Amino acid sequence: MTQTVALTPVVDDLHRRTRILVVALLAVLVLAAVLISFAQTGVGGTSLANPHPVGTYIYDGVPRAHPPFLGITNWPLVFEVLSLVLNLACWATFGWLWWRRGTIHPALILMFALWIAVCLTDPLANWGYSAAYDPRMLHFPIHWPYVSLAPTVEPLSAVAGWQWWYLLPGLAGFGIWRHASRRVTPRAWINRHPLWGLFLIGFAVGAAIDVVAELVFIKSGVYTYTQLKGPLVGGGHTWQFPVVWGPLFQILLYGLTTVFLWRDDRGQTVCGLLGARLRLWRHRPVAREVAIASSVLLVSYLLAIGTMAILKYNASTIAKPWPYQETKTYDPTGLWQRQGQPGPFYKGN
Question: What is the pTM of this model?
Fold first, then answer.
């Protein structure tokens, strides 16, 4: 009888976690069904469509300026499937750990925070970075006001896709830091200043992964940076990439994502310690951590977006030729037209 009473709270807590996961799964399925019901592909019949497209190459029924990269004609589908698989893998892994152990892994907190700070601001980020996506991607209706900030279309995969983009490099950076800290003495700099060590390693790992991944996706034509200011890789070509500005302006995102995975000897995260010091939401510690992490990441991301927008409106290099020839050329400042590129043009929102 004593054993049964002792096990009751554990069993009840397990049932509570199970109910939460079931409700969360149902909510995700409902949200996915709603979004897919509104989703579109292509730009036919919209204000974005080029009425007289001239296709240098035609594949999958659409005109393109370049031949398919590595012979694969539908890179948008590859990107969407990859995003879905990696994102579900992250949620499933850390959700299972929480259900199994009863304690929330910091990565699960970061998944929620990244969704608020990065995924929900993606249209604004695409506007600031001048990032135009392949219209073949499953996307939100072009006429919706907020998503119409995007230079071409706002991909549906952005609702969840960017979580793994920042979390996985953060986990890699954290693993490297932990391995390095164990191989040196407790008096080594990396152990005396763990948060600074995490921040610098996280940024270095994130920047390296970002450059490689973005060069692949840009070369494949999934998206392109339409106009930029140097230094650039492939400047003046469709696959141009801001090799310095792109990773540098995200130093806070990559660095902080790694820092937020750290826990002290009592299991407290940086956001947990900060929340306790500020005495916010004492009875809602998880919501408090999510709120603090998402707020910090959002501010850092907005700084990056704003800086890239300044460069965009002072750009001197365009990504020619325009790759998505079924659409009008995105030309918010008239730079494309001044450089003699063929239209029709549109300024975007």
Answer: 0.88
